[in-house]
Amino acid sequence: MAENVRILLKEEEVDKRIAEVAAMINRDYAGKEVHLICILKGGVFFTCELAKRLTVPVSMDFMSVSSYGSGTESSGVVRIVKDLDESIAGKNVLIVEDIIDSGRTLAYLIEILKQRNPESIHLCTLLDKPERRVKKQVKVDYTCFEIPDEFVVGFGLDYDQKYRNLPYIGVVEFQ
Ligand SMILES: O=P(O)(O)OC[C@H]1O[C@H](OP(=O)(O)OP(=O)(O)O)[C@H](O)[C@@H]1O
Ligand code: HPA
């Protein structure tokens, strides 16, 4: 099926907002080290842009989870494909995601990570689709943009593994 991508958030808007959110994190974590956990694959682009703007000490780790589902819907059953390399015990963890949609992936992930005794655990996302949230509420500490219920790509987000490299956020329109 052919698809078209309509720009929702321009590159400049995204960059400006990431800088604002980074400033909030710098303020909130003053005097502490923040341990960024990037959720692969989509979180990579946002994590890099955010991390470059942090002035507090930063350490990083990566995790890959797969939500059993098909097409554009996640199922809520989440499998860890790549676990963290290091312990998070005693660390100030900040999970960095590209998008919170139904909230199922993050609800599951936060429960798992809490059991590993971090000093604190917070969540930062580039995009949030609040309308899509199912049963479990996920507390999001830092959100760059709330967006409507549309399937988006770019800045790490894919459709069928394509469009992750777009420097803006676009809506996929199927023709
Ligand atoms: O709130 P939810 O409905 O659970 O959806 C959000 C999840 O979906 C996306 O990951 P995806 O499974 O597409 O993996 P990817 O980042 O590797 O593309 C996104 O990065 C979140 O992890
Ligand atoms: O809107 C989306 N786009 C790409 N991947 C996603 N995963 C959950 N929601 C989305």
UniProtKB/TrEMBL annotation:
Cofactor(s) needed for function: Mg(2+)
Name used for this protein in its record: Hypoxanthine phosphoribosyltransferase
Species assigned in the record: Alitiscatomonas aceti
Keywords associated with the record: Cytoplasm, Glycosyltransferase, Magnesium, Metal-binding, Nucleotide-binding, Purine salvage, Transferase
PANTHER family: HYPOXANTHINE PHOSPHORIBOSYLTRANSFERASE (PTHR43340:SF1), HYPOXANTHINE-GUANINE PHOSPHORIBOSYLTRANSFERASE (PTHR43340)
Family note: Belongs to the purine/pyrimidine phosphoribosyltransferase family.
Catalytic activity of the protein: GMP + diphosphate = guanine + 5-phospho-alpha-D-ribose 1-diphosphate; IMP + diphosphate = hypoxanthine + 5-phospho-alpha-D-ribose 1-diphosphate
GO molecular function: glycosyltransferase activity
Subcellular localization(s) per the UniProt record: Cytoplasm
E.C. number: 2.4.2.8
NCBIfam families hit by this protein: HGPRTase
SUPFAM superfamilies named in the record: PRTase-like
Domain Phosphoribosyltransferase: 8-159
Annotated InterPro entries: HGPRT, Hxn_phspho_trans, PRTase-like, PRTase_dom
Pfam entry (one): Pribosyltran
General function of this protein: Purine salvage pathway enzyme that catalyzes the transfer of the ribosyl-5-phosphate group from 5-phospho-alpha-D-ribose 1-diphosphate (PRPP) to the N9 position of the 6-oxopurines hypoxanthine and guanine to form the corresponding ribonucleotides IMP (inosine 5'-monophosphate) and GMP (guanosine 5'-monophosphate), with the release of PPi.
Taxonomy, superkingdom: Bacteria
UniProt keyword Nucleotide-binding present: yes
